[in-house]
Amino acid sequence: MKLGGRPACACLLLALAVGQNALAGGLQISPVNLTLSATQNADGIWLSNEGTAPLNAQVRVFNWQQSGNADRLSTSQGLVISPPIVTLPAGERQLVRVIRTTPATNQVEQAYRLFIDELPPAKVQKNTLQFVMRYSVPVFLQPVGQAENTAKLKWALVQTDGKTFIDNAASNDTAQPVGVDLYLDTTVNGNAVGLVHLGYAQGKLYGDAMALRQLGFHLPEKAQPPFYLNDIAQVTVDYNVQQQTLALTAPLSLLDLKTTQLNQSEMASPKAANAFGALLNYDLYGDSGKNSNFNTFSEFRAFNSAGVLSSTQLTRYSTEQNNNQSFSRLDTSWRSSFPDKMLAVTLGDTLTSSLSWSRQTRIAGVKIGTDFGLNPYMPTTPLPAFLGSATLPSSVELYVNGVKYYNGEVPAGSFQLNTLPNITGAGNAQVMMTDALGRTSVQNFSFYNDQLLLREGLTDWSLELGVVRKNYGYSSFDYASEPALSGTWRRGFSNSLTAGGHMEASDSLVNGGVSSDWIPWSQSGTISTALAASSDAGENGYLYGLGYRWSGGRFNFSSSVTATSGDYHDVATRYGAPPPALSGSAVVGYNFGVGGNLSLSYLQFRYPDQSAIRYANASWFKSITENVSLSASFNQNIDNTRDRSVYLMLTVSTSNSLTAGATVQRTGDKMGYQLNASQSPPSEGGVGWNVAASQQSSQQTGQGEVGYLGRYGRVYTGFRSIPDNNYGYAGATGSLVMMGGGVFAAREINNGFAVVSTDGIPDVPVKLQHNLVGNSDSSGLLLVTPLNSYQNNLISIDPMNLPANMRIRSVSLNATPADRSGTLVNFDIKPVRAAQVNLVDTKGKAIAEGSPVRLMSGIGQNSVVGFDGLTYFDALELHNQLRVTTENGICVAEFDYPENQKSVPTIGPIVCR
C-alpha cells in the first residue's frame, strides 16, 4: 500500500461516475496532524459534518515508513482509534481519540498515518456523481527524552520599516528581527478572537491597550503599554510562527467575561436547569487579646426548579462584660424567577425598590417586579443606531473611538446598524463600507450614551407590600405593626428620554413623585429632574431635584442638587432619620495624559434643624511607570478650617501580585506615616499575605496576616497591635454543598454552580471555559464554581486518559444555573464491549463499504461497513448476530466476543452468510 510523500492530504474519492450532477461531501477534520509527547497517552481529532445530510466516517491507523520516495504502510500495533466508525448528523461533530497501546520508549520517533474516510452510501442516486472525502493525517510519537518542540524550519510574514518580507527562522523564535509587527489569528481559551495586531521583540509578544482589550483581558485605566503577553502571570502563550497563529490560555480572573451584545438581534437567554440541593456559606472569625471574641456569619440555601429559599444569620460571642453573646437572624426569603417574562417574586425579607431621589426600606412581605438579570444577553440601555444604504452587497465595519467593534455583511438596500457597545458618554464612530466591486466609503458620526437610560419601549417596574423591619442586625423579629406599600415604574419613552415614578404609603402617610433623564441632542449630556410630594397626618412637604452630567474623551463633569421643603416624609422617616433638607455635589475631572488625572469635587449636606456640612476635595493620580504610581488627595471642611486632611501615596506593584506602598498624611495638626506590603493568592489557589505599620503622632500600630486560598475555602491568621491592646486573630470562609448525590466543600459561593458527573468514572479532568478546575472524585463527581447565572458556561472533560473501550457521548456541555442555585451536568461515559468486526462474504471478499449493518443481539445497534470490510459496534454481547444488507440481499454473521478485553479488538474475518 503506497501513498505520495505529502505530509497531509485531503483526497476526493469518486464513488460513481454516471451522470452530470455532483454531490459534495461535508466531512471536515481538525487538526490536520498530531504529535504525542512521551508523557502523552492520547490525543484527538474532531470530525465535523458541514453538509446538509448525515454521513458515516471511518478512521484507520497504519504504521508509516518511508523507503526511497515511497510511503510504506502496515497494520498498526502502537495506536488504536476510539471510535473507528462514527455517524454524524448534519451540523454535528465527534471527537475521535488516538490512543497509545504501549508506553513511550527511548528509541527513535515513531510515525503513523490516519486514513479518515467519508463512507459512500450503500445506494447512490442514478445519474449522479457522488464525491466523498479521504484525509491522510500524519501522527508522530516522540520518544522519551526528546524535547516536545524540536528544531524546525519556520517562516513568517513580517513588517519592518514599512516593508513586508518573509523571515526564515530556526526553532529558536528569538532569531526573529527585533520589533516586528505581526497580525496573528488568535484564540483565547479556545474562543476565536480573529486577527490581532501584536509586536514581537526579544522572543516575546507584546501589544497595546487596544490589543489586550480585543483579547478580553481586564485592563486598569492606569496601566501603560506595551504589555508583554509572555510576562503575564498564569498565561500560557502558544505562538506558531509557521502558521501565524496564537493560542492563549488564561485564568478566568484575568478575563472580562461580561456579556456584551454587539449584533442587531437580541440573544435569547438559555433555559436554566435547576437541580434539588442545599448550600451553606460560612464566615468564621475569632480574636484574642484583652477580651476574646468569636463571630460567625452563615447563609443557608435550599433550591429546586421552583426557586430558592435563603436565610442568613449572625452570631456574636465575647468575653467582654455585658456583651457576652447574641444571635441575629438577618434575612429569610423565598424567591421564584420567571426568565421568559423577566419577572421575579420574593416572599419574606426584602428591600423596596427606589429611584435616584427616593430611599429603600427593608420590609418583610412580598415583592414582585422586573429583573433584567434573568436575561443577561439583552441590552437594556439605548444602542445608538447608524442608518445607511448599500447599492451593492457590502461588508460593513464599525469603529468606536478608533477601536473595531463589529464587522458583517449587508445586502443591497437600506440598513440600520444597532451595534454600538455599552459606552457611557460622548464618542465618535466610523462606519466603513466596502461593496462587491471593492469600492470603499467611510462615514463618521458622533453620539452620546448614558447607561442610566432605558432603551425605547423597555419598562422596569416593581411593587412591594409588607411591614417595615426594625433594628436590623440586632433583633431577629422586630417588625412594625403598620403595613407599608411601595411601587416604582420606569419606561424608555425614546432612546433619549427615560421617565418614571415612585410611590409609598403607610397608615396616614402618602408619598409620590416623578423623575426623568433626558439627552436633549447629540453630545449634549444628560439632564435629570425629580419632583415629589408627601402628606403625613396633615403635614405636607415637597422634594425637588435637578442634575446634569457629561463625559467624553479626557473631560467629565457632573452636578446635582436635591432639596426638600415643609415636612417632607417617606416611609423610612418613621423609623429613622428624615431625608436631607439639602444635598448637592459637583465633580469635574480631566485626564492630562502625561500629567496624570485630576478630579475636583464639592459636596454639601444639610439635615432638617441642623447646620450644613460642606466639603471640597482635590485628587490626583499618575502612573509613573507600568508598575509605579503616585496619588495625592486634599480634603477641606469649608465650615471648619481645622478639619483638613492631606495625603500622598506611592504604590509599587509587580506582575506576581505583589504590591507595596508608602503613605504620608496630615489630618488636622497631626502627621501620620504608613508602610504596607501585600501579595494576593493566585486565583487557582495558594498563599497570600499582608503586613502594615503606621504611626500618627506618638501612637504606633502594626499588623501582619498570612492566609491560604484553596479549593475548599480560605483560612487566615494574623496579629494586630494597636494602642493599649495586642491581639491575634484567625478566620475561615467557605461553603458546603449537598447536591447530585454528593457532599462537597468549596470556596464561598455567591452565584451559580454545577455538579459534574462522569458516570462514576474517577479522575477525569474537568475544565470550565477551557481552564482546568479539578478531577472527578472516586464517585465520578466534581463541584464546579463559580458559574454565571442564566448564561452558558462551557464545561468540558479531557477524555484522553480513558481506555479505548469507553463510550463518550460528549466532551463539552453548556451549564446554565439559575440565580444562586446549582445545576447537574452529566457526561455519559460508560465502559462498553466494543470491537471492530471484519466482515467477508462466502468467497472471502470484503463486504462492500457503505453496506448497512444491524446488531440483532442485546439492545440492538445500527452501523455501516467501512473500507476493508470493517464495521464497529460498542453495544456487543458475549454472543452476537449481525444482519448485513448488501447489493445481493441480506446476509447474517455470528461471532463471540472475547472476554476480559481492556481495549478495542478486531474480530474476524467473519463470514456473512
TrEMBL record:
One of its GO terms (biological process) is cell wall organization. GO terms for molecular function: fimbrial usher porin activity. It comes from the Eukaryota. One of its GO terms (cellular component) is membrane. The keyword Transcription does not apply. Keywords: Signal. Gene3D superfamilies: 2.60.40.3110, Immunoglobulins, Outer membrane usher protein FimD, plug domain. Residues 26-145 form the Pili assembly chaperone N-terminal domain. Residues 1-24 form the signal peptide. This is Outer membrane usher protein sefC.
